[in-house]
Design brief:
The chain crosses the membrane at residues 16-34. The chain has 46 residues and is mainly α. It has one helix at residues 12-45.
Length: 46
């Protein structure tokens, strides 16, 4: 085995689905982290 990946790159339709799935998870995660930092800052700074 040479270590090369045998998977082909995703088709354009699948690429859109993958992008949508990452956004579906990433946007709420980013918002949650933003709120966490904002509230932690309030907690520790008074």
């Amino acid at each position: 085995m040479t270590g090369e990946s045998s998977q082909s790159p995703p088709s354009p339709g699948r690429r859109g689905l993958i992008t949508f799935a990452w956004l579906w998870v990433g946007v709420p995660l980013a918002y949650g982290l933003y709120e966490l930092v904002r509230k932690a800052t309030q907690l520790f700074t008074g």
